[in-house]
Amino acid sequence: MPQTQPIYLIRHGQTDWNAENRLQGQTDRPLNETGEAQALSNGAFLRANLSEPISDFDFVASPMLRTRQTMGLVRRGLGLPEESFQTDERLKELSFGDWESHTFAELERNDPGVSQRREADKWNFVPPGEGAESYEMLLQRVRPWFDEMMDSEKSAICVSHGGILRCAFRLFGNHSQEEAAEMAVPQDRIAVLEDGAIRWL
């Protein structure tokens, strides 16, 4: 039977590195003021638009600092205590390896043509460095989490990362690898996975 209880998927709010177009990956960075406002706004949007009792929801976030901060503020926007949620390691952003903390302009100066090589197969490209991942590797890491959530009888609110949302749209949105790799993943909107399909609210 297809999943019917909705899973609301939220990307963490903006950080200074987001604003500077620096690759964060699995480097912890805090939200900036814009990111805090985005998270509170997303929580207020849910509070105004959810039809299900909020007591029936599971809350789960990536264990990274920016996602935990976002979840706390989403819960504040919902009128709930900030600290009461679970984390799951599978929801961490993909690792950019040696590229983390750099902009693509900086990477290009050190290795001319690297951006073009990545764009040739962005979904499957693995950056240099120990533990670095492609989007396809991330999808294989997070797929079991989605399977578990689809089998659950509870609605859920999840705060994770741009890469996780790309995987969700690849798995449930009929997006090709190229489309999922290039799609915009806003920090001030919410996606919902329901009845085996995903869409932006």
UniProtKB/TrEMBL annotation:
<feature type="active site" description="Tele-phosphohistidine intermediate">
    <location>
        <position position="12"/>
    </location>
</feature>
<dbReference type="InterPro" id="IPR050275">
    <property type="entry name" value="PGM_Phosphatase"/>
</dbReference>
<dbReference type="GO" id="GO:0005737">
    <property type="term" value="C:cytoplasm"/>
</dbReference>
<dbReference type="InterPro" id="IPR001345">
    <property type="entry name" value="PG/BPGM_mutase_AS"/>
</dbReference>
<feature type="active site" description="Proton donor/acceptor">
    <location>
        <position position="93"/>
    </location>
</feature>
<feature type="binding site">
    <location>
        <begin position="11"/>
        <end position="18"/>
    </location>
    <ligand>
        <name>substrate</name>
    </ligand>
</feature>
<protein>
    <submittedName>
        <fullName>Histidine phosphatase family protein</fullName>
    </submittedName>
</protein>
<dbReference type="InterPro" id="IPR029033">
    <property type="entry name" value="His_PPase_superfam"/>
</dbReference>
<dbReference type="GO" id="GO:0016791">
    <property type="term" value="F:phosphatase activity"/>
</dbReference>
<dbReference type="Pfam" id="PF00300">
    <property type="entry name" value="His_Phos_1"/>
</dbReference>
<feature type="binding site">
    <location>
        <position position="66"/>
    </location>
    <ligand>
        <name>substrate</name>
    </ligand>
</feature>
<dbReference type="InterPro" id="IPR013078">
    <property type="entry name" value="His_Pase_superF_clade-1"/>
</dbReference>
